[in-house]
Write a structure and sequence with these properties.
The chain is α/β, with parallel strands linked by helices and 326 residues long. It has 11 helices and 10 strands. The chain has 2 domains: 2-127 and 253-321, D-Maltodextrin-Binding Protein, domain 2; 129-244, D-Maltodextrin-Binding Protein, domain 2. Strands 1, 2, 3, 4, 5, 6, 7, 8, 9 and 10 form a 10-stranded mixed sheet that branches. Strand 5 (158-161), helix 6 and strand 6 form a beta-alpha-beta unit. Helix 4 runs parallel beside helix 11. It is globular and about 65 Å long.
């Protein structure tokens, strides 16, 4: 009941501004009759793209207009993100982005945008945990045994990832930092090939995305040890959090909406409120469940605070480990 009251109050307070013609918004009140663009800074078919299209479709229905998804991939998400940062701040263009918004400034020598000054947070769409999985050939049955084995065999274990700076990679870096172990990172162009190499024993472990890893675990071709988030995942409740063995370990793949800085606050408030309603829809929730995605719908302030915390956590780790994007 509280959520409904707050949402009605929010929309009532901003309705007058949205209904009035505004400089840069044309003659039609936003978003009526306008084509809205959601930029996905990654190729089609990935989690960012799938979640972006779910949100875009539902928002388009709610607004009675087209919300077009545009994939602008490249440079770890920097190309699409930069395009939105430089777009006209009139509500017609916004962005769905992931952990790269917090990490790329530390991974790349130079960015053409500032993730805080040039972009305005709208809302967190979803959080997705990763799953620590190991080769069946590795003689460990739980996280404690993995830590002990890694300490007894420094530099011998290999862990795959979907690329430098991804949550899959950074999970491994954080694990090493918190456990005092040393492993060898093997980056791939996505985790599909990494998963194949894990099943054949070419690499030892991956902190993989749940949708990729879970079918293999349940088929018995690899072994699951723990979830990367601080609490158990509803889609895989049998796996304990790694944090139960490694205090302080908490990693999520996250997906959030941002707009160009100086986008009118009323427009941001409307996108936030309508996105929160969209991801609460049972049909959308069922599709998000397939990605093991936990709907969020956070406020603008909560999303901004989370971004700052991610920048702090990963910035320190990336600097200490000397990680650089290729």
């Amino acid at each position: 009941m509280t959520v409904q009251i707050d949402r009605r109050a929010l929309l009532a307070g901003t309705g007058a501004l949205l209904a009035a013609p505004t400089t840069g918004l044309g003659q039609q009140p936003w978003p009526q009759g306008r084509v809205i663009k959601l930029v996905v800074p990654f190729p089609p078919a990935g989690a960012t793209d799938v979640l972006g299209r779910l949100v875009a479709d539902k928002l388009g229905q709610a607004w009675g207009t087209n919300v077009v998804v545009e994939n602008r991939a490249g440079a770890g998400g920097n190309i699409g993100t930069d395009a939105v940062a430089k777009a006209e701040p009139n509500g017609d263009t916004f962005l769905i982005v992931s952990v790269g918004l917090a990490t790329n400034q530390y991974l790349y020598a130079k960015l053409n945008y500032d993730p805080v000054k040039d972009l305005a947070p709208i809302t967190m769409v979803a959080m997705v945990p990763n799953l620590l999985v190991v080769s069946n050939q590795l003689p460990v049955k739980d996280v404690a045994e993995l830590v002990a084995y890694a300490k007894a065999n420094p530099g011998k274990l290999t862990y795959g990832s979907s690329g430098i700076g991804t949550s899959v990679h950074l999970s491994g870096e954080l694990f090493q930092k918190l456990t005092g172990t040393k492993m060898v990172h093997v980056p791939y162009r996505g985790t599909a090939q990494a998963a194949q190499d894990l099943m054949t024993g070419r690499i030892d472990l991956i902190f993989d995305n749940i949708p990729q890893a879970l079918p293999h675990v349940r088929a018995g071709t690899i072994r699951g040890l723990g979830i990367t988030t601080a609490k158990r995942a509803p889609t895989a409740p049998e796996f304990p959090p790694i944090a139960e063995t490694v205090p302080g370990f908490d990693v999520s793949s996250w997906f959030a909406l941002f707009a160009p800085a100086k986008t009118p606050p009323a427009i941001i408030a409307k996108i936030q409120a309508d996105t929160k309603a969209a991801i609460a829809d049972p049909a959308v929730r069922s599709k998000m469940d397939l990605l093991a995605a936990e709907p969020a719908g956070w406020s603008q302030a909560e999303t901004a605070s989370f971004l700052q915390s991610e920048m702090k956590k990963w910035g320190d780790l990336i600097r200490d480990a000397g990680i650089k994007a290729e």
